[in-house]
Amino acid sequence: MHWQFSNDMPIYTQLIEQIKVAIVSGVFLPGERLPSVRDLAVDAGVNPNTMQRAMAELERDKLVFSQRTSGRYVTEDHMVIHALKADLARIHVARCVEALERLGYTREDILDVLTNSLKGE
Question: 90-120 burial string, b = 16+ CB within 10 Å, else e?
Fold first, then answer.
């Protein structure tokens, strides 16, 4: 997995977001065993405690679950994954709308920009 971090939010929050994207995009499949916290931390270049904090949050959100002796797995609940995908889409759209409004676009202008973009114009 390719990890990218910025300075505008805590690393564990960015880890959570990136793992969520990996789950909804199929990088990590439903029911798939995830790499260990240590392996993920090494891969991301972060402290294992930071990765553990992110994984604990993902467990609270029911996106991953632990098996005592065999590690963590991605949820097999497709409804949870679908809801997460819809939530992430809303967040990205809201950010896009906010950025375009800062540029001075009206909501109607934004619809035109998005429609034209989707048409490839």
Answer: eeeeeeeeeebeeeeeeeeebeeeeeeeeee
E strand or H helix at 74: strand 71-74
Domain ranges for the chain: 11-76, 79-120
Which value, to the nearest 10 degrees, does the dihedral of the CA atoms of residues 43, 38, 22, 96 take? -70
- Domain 11-76 class in CATH: mainly alpha
pLDDT digits (tens, 9 = 90+) for 68-105: 888 999 999 999 999 999 999 999 999 999 999 999 99
Amino acid at 102: R
With contact defined as beta carbons under 8 Å apart, do 26 and 85 qualify? no
Q: Find the angle CA(58)-CA(86)-CA(26) to the nearest 5 degrees.
A: 60
> pTM of the entire structure?
0.84
